[in-house]
Amino acid sequence: MRIIGYIEHSFLKITVFKMDNKLSVKFEHGLFEQTYKFRETAHLSTLEDIKKLVEKSFIDGVLETFKTMNYTKNKAFSRVIMENDEDDFEEII
Which domain covers residue 46, as residue numbers? Predict the structure, then answer.
């Protein structure tokens, strides 16, 4: 797999990879990342083709998924902290 380029964004790191007949677009934000893979076709084979694909509505969907990922992570983390807090005190009868 090799990096064929980057797509500029104000707060996302967007990297485009190519391997065999596949193109991958990885979005990174903080501790989260998402990767979308595409088969190479006559219409989708270059960095410029990927830049046309990754436009505002695509990125809006990626950002919504990051929000969902963050919510899911925080909810699970809160649940674990609550369980551990309950175990911190001895039971008094």
Answer: 2-86
Q: What is the pTM of this model?
A: 0.83
How many other β-carbons are positioned within 10 Å of the β-carbon of residue 50? 22
pLDDT tens per residue across span 48-69? 999 999 999 999 999 999 999 9
Half-sphere exposure for 18 (CA within 13 Å, toward CB): 13
Residue 74 DSSP SS3 = helix
Tokens of 70: 């963050």
Cα separation, 85 vs 79, whole angstroms: 10
pLDDT in tens, 28-41: 999 999 999 999 99
Structural domains of the chain, count: 1
Report helix, strand or coil for 51. Answer: helix
